[in-house]
Write a structure and sequence with these properties.
354 residues, mainly alpha, two-stranded antiparallel ribbon, 4 strands, 76% helix
Length: 354
């Protein structure tokens, strides 16, 4: 079975290469569907497969740029990208990324990077899962109350923090037409700075928190948040790839292996968003976040309890790859079903046209 393992020349470790293929293809679909570069699953996934954490971060950041570009181009065709908003957020992201990357290098020199980043990931994922499912719960509660009163169900959010934040009128005030948002320019800049800082630390490209931030803090519709975030991730991802490659923490061979499948999967995921409603995307995003958090818990327990380390490491690997596979299968099924229904509708219209 040795041929299943490939030597990564820069990291100096042997990696289960079929896991890289599954991770690349699956994360490509997921990134196109959720509007993120996929680094939030790639980084812990690479670490679970055997990469040191610093290499997991650098390789994850590098890999995400390709599928993000493919997905953002596809979303642009659907009118889901607010370029003005995306370009403004790039400035904040780049400003925040370098301090985060330097912090990782400092932690690595002191031998603390693995534990600190894993615990940080766990806290971040827990907060995002709480946010998403609280939002869904409040939205469902509002819908039930409206139906009980015989009122139409409104297209409102469960959590509406953006309404308060948009009232802060610090000049200059900008109108983002595609997103339908009018706010102080400092709101998206502040959000992108924080996400850029976390991107540098966790290797997530910022999309893990930027997409929810665009929805809950800026006030973008889900489909516009997805497309705009992917556009921004493409630019910041290229910068992040250059930064970590310069620091010698990018395994290019692994990035290329994942990139081949990810570019195909990204197009499928982007098209699938046409056939799933906004809250459907948020629900499956929340499920993915929980699964990723559980795999990190397994990894932490394995490092602290040696007798169960082999079992827990194998279970964590199985969970993260299984999660990617299951979500990818769901997205692919929705993609096929939506395309089939759309073709059937076009055929019907042709037949009824005189």
């Amino acid at each position: 079975m040795d041929w299943f393992y490939l030597l990564m020349p820069i990291a100096g470790t042997y990696i289960f290469w079929p896991g890289l293929v599954v991770l690349g293809l699956g994360v490509g679909m997921i990134s196109g569907f959720f509007g993120m570069g996929g680094g939030w699953m790639v980084t812990p996934g690479l670490n679970i497969l055997g990469f040191p954490m610093a290499f997991s971060i650098g390789t994850g950041v590098t890999q995400m740029a390709g599928p993000s570009l493919v997905s953002s181009l596809r979303h642009a065709k659907f009118g889901n990208v607010d370029y003005r908003l995306g370009l403004i957020m790039v400035a904040g992201t780049v400003a925040g990324f370098e301090p985060g990357a330097r912090l990782v290098m400092w932690l690595e020199r002191h031998g603390r990077v693995d534990a600190y980043v894993q615990y940080g990931y766990l806290v971040l994922l827990s907060l995002i899962a709480w946010l998403v499912f609280t939002d869904i719960s409040r939205k469902n509660s509002k819908d039930r109350e409206a139906r009980a009163l015989g009122k139409p169900v409104e297209a409102s959010s469960g959590i509406e923090w953006h309404k308060a934040l948009q009232k802060i009128k610090i000049p200059p005030i900008v109108h983002f037409q595609k997103a339908g948002v009018r706010c102080s320019v400092w709101l998206p800049v502040s959000v992108s700075f924080v996400t850029g800082l976390l991107a540098g630390v966790f290797g997530i490209g910022g999309g893990l928190i930027r997409m929810p931030a665009l929805i809950y803090l800026v006030g973008c519709p889900t489909h516009v948040a997805v497309g705009t975030d992917l556009f921004e991730v493409t630019i910041s991802g290229l910068y992040g790839a250059a930064s970590y490659s310069y620091k010698g923490r990018t395994e290019l061979l692994a990035a290329v292996i994942m990139l081949l499948g990810a570019c195909i999967g990204a197009q499928i995921g982007a098209v699938a968003t046409k056939y799933v409603k906004g809250y459907g995307i948020r629900l499956f995003f929340g499920i993915a976040v929980i699964g990723c958090a559980v795999s990190i818990v397994m990894k932490l327990i394995a490092s602290a309890y040696a007798p169960a380390a082999a079992f827990l490491n194998a279970a964590a690997t199985t969970l993260i790859l299984g999660l990617v596979g299951a979500l990818s299968l769901y997205i692919f099924v929705r993609f096929l079903r939506g395309v089939r229904e759309e073709l059937a509708l076009q055929k019907q219209m042709l037949q009824t046209t005189p």
